[in-house]
From TrEMBL, chains A, B:
This is LacI family DNA-binding transcriptional regulator. Pfam families: LacI (PF00356), Peripla_BP_4 (PF13407). Gene3D superfamilies: 3.40.50.2300, lambda repressor-like DNA-binding domains. SUPFAM superfamilies: lambda repressor-like DNA-binding domains (SSF47413), Periplasmic binding protein-like I (SSF53822). CDD domains: HTH_LacI, PBP1_LacI_sugar_binding-like. Keywords: DNA-binding, Transcription, Transcription regulation.
DNA sequence: GTGAAAGCGCTAACAC
DNA sequence: GTGTTAGCGCTTTCAC
């Protein structure tokens, strides 16, 4: 079976004590240069690596951080993960990625598992279904550092990173208005998500500015964030069947944008103009086309990670928390 | 700080020894039902969870399996990951996902890290850049169970899962031929990958069957799997500038397919017909359109995981290895 | 400058 | 049926 070299093996080989070896390895100042070199060279030679499991047990921390996102297949999240990893690795942390698939139960299980696994902190974007936050609050109260990004929990006292959802939504909606559209529908994520509220504000603001009345009938929520089969298509059908059929749609998330375009194509309504949040890197290939609001996902991941590590490594309990709001970029089609 | 309950706390509270508690918790037959109930109830009440770190240290295994893929943003891999997780979780294992981004160095670091992290085994699909396999062979020799999927290492004695790359490529190419194309180019991944060789065989077979000569000039390899900026576009440009400009392209992977379509659009060559490997779930939205060969990614992940766990849990060293080849599905456009 | 020993949380042989 | 003890690999007092 797989049996790595231990500090003991080195000690035996070099006729030293394990403590001396340990100290030499971590460059303890008490050790003579001679011994230090001896140990270091030998360790190098046999490719010794400290056992992080033992270290974790000893230090009650693991130098790993947990990530909870709805799914890695979503470009926004995979970019964010890349950002998280870039910072984490550079600071000596590893990451453990877990997916909630927008399910509340999965999120609960994932969080518990990460906590048991002794991650030093968690970076999370809430699942679409999550309405109860006890599982997070409990861990937070127990002292586990938690940072939110994208889909944040406003009520929790901790660091948060979002993009400027209001402005992003405003720009997209105003673009549709300037295109001459008057009946602009809004396809949204589940109602209780922070991003849903924010993006709806931007949508409404744009309507108001241009004297277009806001109509509740034009708004559809996807409770499962589009993870449920047919969820998005059903929402789209009900919009398309409205007596006053929309001439444009503002879509509030990546996954919904894809579902929206697919539904328009399927139901031969390509004349409806779509603008929405999406970080897709192949958006120029889409037909019907999509004007999109892009979030700085990579950077959001980086910042969230810096924030998390700052809490983890803080000498004293952190009392002051920050919410960073990054700008989105709007890329209209033509 | 975050301080979970330990078995010791329970022992103290219940005035028992830690071993009794430990045994009761795992349902040891020697413990009286009375004590067992006492312990179980109390553990339940205070929401006790065994510390997996301590367990790992003790048992020299972690009940976690490592995954190495080029990137999670790639649909094929994210689907495979979902398959892996489905089996892993059901059998009590956790997963640690790591991305090579098709870089050799990253792959080496990831593998080492996973091994140090005491994963019980690794499921890997090779990076496009990887040409040297010592990092894998070393761990394998040390007894770490390894299973390959998709981009496999033929020379290693272990379980492997692939899709029927030859047949998939054959079908796609033949489809192009039946569409009336005669000058069919081939955009491929890096040359040393198993899938590259296999898919090229299928491509050639189809040409041969229909009496079209194979031309080396029509083949382009992407050494970095398309992860390098402009890599795919450059390859495409050189194909488009050929004296005998191709009238169709068979593309050998998901990422390349996207790059290929983007390049065709950018260089106004939408008349060229494209067929290629892709597991994209929004392929019907693409323009130019893509006829695609789909791999059963989820199932491949599941099978790989079952194989891995069978090695991990084998009582005796496994000597007989299996290579499972799953069928692809071809979805032509129109 | 180096070694012996205790302890992180858990399990399992070995008492009793 | 339950307790004692040693040990997984490592760090870190405390001796010397």
């Amino acid at each position: 079976m797989f049996k790595p070299v231990t500090i003991k093996d080195i000690a035996k080989e070099l006729k030293l004590s394990t403590s001396t070896v340990s100290r030499a390895l971590r460059g303890g100042y008490e050790i003579s240069d001679e011994t230090k070199k001896l140990v270091l060279d030998y360790a190098e030679k046999i490719n010794f690596k400290r056992n992080p499991i033992a270290l974790s047990l000893k230090e009650r921390r693991s130098y790993s951080i947990g990530i909870v996102v709805c799914e890695v297949a979503n470009v926004f999240f995979s970019q964010a993960i890349d950002g998280i990893e870039s910072i984490a690795y550079s600071k000596g942390y590893n990451t453990i990625i877990s997916q909630s698939h927008d399910k509340y139960e999965r999120e609960v299980i994932n969080m518990e598992h990460l906590a048991n696994r002794s991650v030093d902190g968690i970076i999370i974007s809430l699942a679409a279904e999550t309405k109860n936050y006890e599982h997070i609050e409990k861990l937070h109260k127990q002292g586990l550092p938690i940072v939110f990004f994208d889909r944040i929990l406003e009520s929790m006292q901790t660091h948060k990173v979002t993009s400027n959802n209001v402005k992003g939504a405003f720009e997209a909606t105003e673009y549709l208005i300037k295109k001459g559209c008057k009946k602009i529908a809004h396809l949204a994520n589940s109602e209780q998500l922070s991003i849903t509220a924010q993006r709806q504000i931007g949508y409404k603001d744009a309507l108001t500015k241009h004297h277009i009345p806001f109509k509740k009938e034009y708004v559809r929520y996807c409770e499962h964030g589009g993870s449920m089969k047919d969820e998005v298509e059903q929402a789209m059908i009900s919009l398309l069947n409205l007596p006053e059929k929309p001439d444009a749609i503002f879509v509030a998330s990546d996954r919904l944008s894809m579902g929206c375009l697919a539904a328009l194509k399927k139901h031969h309504s390509e004349n409806i103009i779509v603008a929405g949040f999406s970080n897709s890197d192949v958006v120029e290939l889409f037909s019907p086309s999509l004007s999109c609001v892009r979030q700085p996902a990579f950077e959001m991941g980086q910042i969230a990670t810096e924030m998390l590590i700052s809490i983890i490594e803080a000498k004293y309990p952190v009392e002051e928390f920050e919410t960073r709001i990054l700008d989105t970029t709007f890329s209209p089609i033509a």
